[in-house]
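Translate structure to sequence.
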């Protein structure tokens, strides 16, 4: 029998794994050597033998198979007595100088780690189950770098990374918020926007960029017709750290190669591994059509006994799917008391009738971008530790947040409104199975998956091709225009005509250059009286100032390529509604009162127009998106851009300078203050933050709040069981606190 025949036999008759073991090893001996990709059928054979368990794992012949495969983590679990097995395990074990934790690595993982540990740049592409993150974390735990930056694409991944590296707090100050003050030795875990803010004051020895495929947003522009300023910002960050002596380690899944025009340094660092540690079993289902798919998926979920992720294209769609899964349940699922406690808390703090609470009460979790961070974090944690058997999710789980699922059901082959490509499908499918836990992952999908087109990553700031955003062209402009090419010369002329400096554009790197140019031209057309409406420095503008600045924001940044930049229709469809929502947030704070006020507005409007009752779940999604996206990033980032463009104009007119930092911070922190709002990023919901606010009195900075939190005795506080779990988990994720370091 060859390997494919053995794999087929194991698939059909798993009980015969012992009898097939000799055939498997014999077939392996005749197969292609393993120096490159494993031979067809090999991974499946190993995974199915591991899946079966039993006495197969204890047999020396199986240990030989694992050793040949380079799967030393699995070999170590078998407690091998063979001296060659012990030597192989020891040779692939990385010791840690922080926490004393040793990590047994598989062959390709160890090769990549040793390469990076020798000080080389590394751009690693490997399957989802490879253990890429473990390589970076083990590199950090060598404790030989004075200042480390870990750049992550989302706050959710920032939170997870901080928790994973919490034990490094005894050797580094862990910095995750721009309000924190660096120490002598720092481990900074930041989004690219925050990293750029901190970069001028820090010199890094090691820079880790997770999910580095986000450097190339051509795919998103093609699939979703959307501009991704995170990609532009990450390119600027890469350009600036690559110009230093820092070692750069980048990690990403399923990348075929790099574009021809990337730098030789980056090309030398690229390593691609196709060595999966689990086997993915793809199961195609007949597609009943978009409307009937949720019910069909729900029937499938009901028939599966292992933990199952269900992917849907967006927040509203995921809630529709969750309702279908709940409706299909033939018997109530017996829930852990902690899940019942979570349901009670959600209903108390958000009101009844929300599908998130109703689904959770039936044992079905939800995870999408319109959930508060605390609830989203609880859903993942409850799923991973077995308290929930089903988690319905969107693409929010795709960028590095770890889950432990045996099955993945792909309901929609879409990302938002854009179509899938093979990269997106592979990323979602790769969530099935987990190294050391679920050796065979099962993927169920409707219809034909996208054809494998490969994924070639461009780094636009390096390649400077025709699709490179204008602001990244400015990023590489030299002071001397002699070396400009035709496009650079044209952009320089536009900057000069608008009297917009190169430094200003670089400061506002995420803002599309056409919008910065239009803004510069617009403010230069204002007379002295109009300009004075923008010359304020307070943390809260007066009514006329608020009207002027919000009108300018709306008019300047709601054009291509970021149409509806501040809009969440129908929740916010005009600049007047934007001002109304800001005033309501200021009045009620980010708690139940805000949701209730908005819902009351929407009900009254629907009654006036004789329309149907609004959906309370949609209101919660809209309010959460408003607080997270519009207030948490979009308004503050554009306020800073307006201030930087206005500064020289006001100076020319002899008008005192504007300073919007206070107001930007007020909005960004949802009127709670930076010291309090920083706790939201730890997964503590605003409602719970309000409960512990007496303990936080006097804390003026994020560092001070974290210090207070570490000293809290949660058992002495008047909290619900759910609140205590959330708070204890957040405190545990902070790790040791350091404010000054002299190591």
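Result:
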């Amino acid at each position: 029998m060859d390997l494919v025949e053995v794999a087929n036999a194991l698939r059909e008759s798993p009980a015969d794994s012992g009898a097939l073991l000799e055939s498997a090893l014999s077939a392996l001996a005749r197969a292609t050597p393993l120096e490159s990709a494993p031979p067809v059928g090999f991974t499946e054979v190993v995974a199915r033998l591991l899946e079966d368990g039993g006495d197969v794992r204890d047999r020396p012949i199986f240990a030989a198979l694992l050793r040949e495969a380079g799967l030393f983590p699995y070999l170590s679990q078998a407690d091998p007595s063979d001296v060659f097995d012990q030597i192989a395990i020891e040779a692939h074990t990385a010791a840690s100088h922080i926490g004393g934790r040793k990590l047994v690595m598989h062959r390709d993982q160890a090769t990549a780690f040793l390469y990076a540990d020798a000080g080389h740049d590394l751009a690693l592409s490997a399957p989802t189950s490879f253990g890429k993150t473990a390589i970076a974390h083990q590199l950090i735990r060598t404790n030989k770098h004075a200042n480390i930056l870990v750049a992550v694409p989302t706050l959710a991944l920032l939170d997870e990374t901080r928790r994973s590296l919490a034990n490094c707090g005894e050797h580094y100050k862990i910095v995750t918020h721009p309000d924190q003050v660096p120490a002598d030795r720092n481990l900074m875990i930041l989004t690219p926007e925050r990293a750029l803010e901190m970069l001028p004051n820090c010199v890094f020895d090691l820079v880790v960029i997770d999910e580095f495929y986000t450097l190339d947003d051509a795919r998103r522009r093609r699939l979703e017709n959307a501009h991704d300023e995170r990609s532009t910002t990450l390119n600027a960050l890469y350009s600036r750290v690559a110009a230093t002596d820092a070692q750069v380690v980048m990690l990403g899944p399923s990348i075929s190669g790099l574009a021809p025009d990337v730098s030789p340094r980056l090309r030398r660092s690229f390593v691609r591994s196709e060595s999966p540690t689990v086997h993915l079993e793809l199961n195609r289902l007949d597609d009943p059509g978009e409307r009937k798919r949720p019910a069909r998926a729900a029937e499938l979920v009901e028939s599966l006994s292992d933990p199952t992720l269900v992917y849907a294209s967006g927040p509203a769609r995921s809630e529709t799917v969750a309702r279908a899964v709940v409706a299909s349940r033939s018997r109530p699922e017996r829930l852990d008391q902690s899940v019942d406690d979570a349901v009670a808390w959600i209903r108390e703090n958000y009101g009844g009738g929300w599908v998130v609470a109703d689904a959770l009460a039936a044992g079905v979790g939800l995870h999408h971008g319109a959930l508060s961070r605390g609830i989203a974090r609880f859903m993942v944690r409850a799923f991973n530790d077995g308290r929930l058997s089903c988690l319905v999710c969107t693409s929010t789980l795709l960028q590095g947040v770890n889950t432990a699922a045996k099955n993945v059901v792909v309901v929609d082959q879409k990302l938002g409104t854009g179509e899938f490509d093979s990269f997106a499908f592979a990323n979602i499918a790769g969530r099935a199975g987990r190294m050391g836990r679920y050796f065979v992952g099962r993927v169920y999908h409707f219809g034909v998956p996208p054809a494998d087109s490969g994924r070639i990553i461009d780094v636009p700031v390096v390649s400077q091709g025709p699709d490179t955003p204008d602001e990244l062209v400015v990023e590489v402009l030299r002071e001397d225009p002699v070396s400009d090419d035709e496009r650079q010369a044209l952009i320089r002329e536009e900057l000069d005509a608008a009297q917009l400096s190169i430094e200003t554009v670089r400061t506002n790197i995420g803002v599309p250059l056409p919008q910065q140019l239009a803004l510069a031209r617009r403010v230069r057309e204002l007379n002295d009286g109009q300009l004075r409406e923008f010359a304020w420095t307070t943390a809260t503008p007066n009514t006329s100032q608020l009207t002027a600045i919000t009108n300018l924001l709306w008019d300047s940044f709601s054009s291509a390529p970021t149409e509806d930049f501040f809009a969440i229709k129908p929740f916010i469809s005009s600049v007047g509604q934007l001002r109304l929502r800001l005033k309501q947030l200021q009045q009620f704070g980010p708690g139940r009162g805000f949701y209730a006020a908005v819902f009351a507005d929407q009900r009254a409007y629907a009654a006036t127009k004789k329309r149907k009752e609004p959906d309370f779940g949609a209101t919660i999604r809209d309010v959460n998106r408003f607080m997270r996206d519009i207030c948490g990033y979009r308004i503050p980032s554009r306020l800073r851009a307006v201030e930087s463009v206005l500064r020289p104009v006001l100076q020319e007119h002899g008008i005192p300078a504007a300073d919007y930092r206070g107001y930007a911070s007020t909005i960004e922190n949802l009127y709670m203050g930076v010291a309090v709002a920083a706790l939201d990023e730890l997964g503590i919901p605003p409602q719970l933050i309000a409960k512990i606010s007496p303990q936080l009195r006097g804390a003026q900075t994020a560092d001070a709040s974290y210090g207070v939190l570490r000293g809290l005795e949660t058992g002495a506080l008047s909290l619900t069981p759910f609140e205590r779990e959330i708070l204890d988990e957040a405190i545990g994720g902070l790790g040791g606190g350091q404010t000054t370091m002299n190591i």
